[in-house]
Design a protein that fits this description.
The protein is an alpha+beta fold and 289 residues long. It has helices at residues 3-11, 15-22, 25-28, 36-46, 52-67, 79-89, 96-109, 122-127, 131-147, 189-197, 232-237, 243-252, 274-283, and strands at 151-160, 167-177, 184-186, 201-204, 212-218, 224-231, 264-272.
Length: 289
């Protein structure tokens, strides 16, 4: 919505809603959002694009998050950014994972303890994320926090057709998320490409990680300690323990299977960018992990 469009829209609002939007900071960041979702959503409601339940649920979520901001910390300096995020979010209102991220962004923009870290581009980034992108991004943020490192291992496994050449892939851009019990593999190549395109991660496909792994682990008394969890090499080698690799070996025994070389494991890494880390601190609070 451009300035002229915003002005026309604002002029059409009921006086009570205008008062909430431009009222004192403490009111704007709390009661100001009560009912505003419905006001913004009204054109989409008339087109039958939004369900009443989704709107009411979203209002409750936003109201709960903004009411949790202490009155002395409520801030209207980035109210315009919060309104823009609210407008953008309406087109994704039925996507729970995305709505959760938007509601966190809006609440953080209205809190003076965090509003200085809210960048105007954050809402644009969310607009371009699919649900799969958002889920993968949350996993990356959570894992890099546990590792206290911006890096995670990624791998490809390929074989060569003999004797004429050409390559086949068993694993392509498979992200390995270290965990205490069993490493988690993420092979959503589209989302990895998307996060890279958005400037949230950098992918280095031939630059492996070395050394031991240590994960932050919360203790029963609430304190956090580092716990050893093998090595990065163990992460890469875990691909050989997967059902997918075992199925490949079984298929390879078939007389109809083409003549190929032994598979080679190509070790790489991804890096969470500083921009992504800042975005994650806003839309994925530690308490929500």
């Amino acid at each position: 919505m451009d300035f002229v469009g915003f002005s026309l829209w604002f002029a059409s609002l009921p006086e009570s809603v205008k008062e909430n939007l431009v009222g004192p900071a403490s009111q704007t960041a709390g009661k100001g959002l009560n009912g505003i979702v419905t006001v913004f959503a009204n054109p989409l409601i008339k087109l039958g694009m939004l369900a009443d339940k989704d709107i009411k649920d979203y209002e409750k979520k936003l109201y709960s998050k903004t009411q949790a901001i202490p009155e002395e910390n409520r801030d209207s300096s980035k109210q315009g950014l919060a309104i823009q995020a609210l407008e953008d979010s309406l087109y994704r209102i039925s996507e729970e994972e995305i709505v959760e991220l938007y509601s966190n962004l809006i609440a953080k923009a209205l809190d003076n303890r965090t509003s200085n870290r809210v960048h105007p581009s954050f809402t644009s980034i969310l607009k371009e994320m699919s649900i799969s992108d958002a889920i993968l991004f949350k996993k990356i943020i959570t894992s890099t926090r546990q590792l206290v490192s911006p890096y995670l291992p990624i791998a490809n496994m390929q074989y060569k057709f003999l004797p004429n050449g050409g390559y086949g892939l068993i694993f392509k851009d498979t992200l390995i998320i270290p965990e205490h019990e069993q490493n988690q593999l993420e092979s959503d190549t589209v989302s990895i490409f998307s996060l890279e395109r958005l400037g949230l991660i950098k992918v280095y496909r031939n630059d492996e990680l070395h050394g031991p792994l240590r994960l932050i682990t919360k203790q029963p008394d609430g304190t956090n300690i580092f716990v050893g969890n093998g090595s990065y090499e163990d992460c890469y080698l875990s691909l050989y323990q997967t059902d997918k690799y075992k199925d490949f070996l079984n298929n390879k025994q078939s007389p109809n299977f083409p003549n190929i070389s032994e598979p080679s494991l190509i070790r790489g890494r991804i890096e969470l960018t500083d921009f992504a880390s800042r975005l994650g601190s806003i839309i994925i609070p530690i308490a929500s992990q």
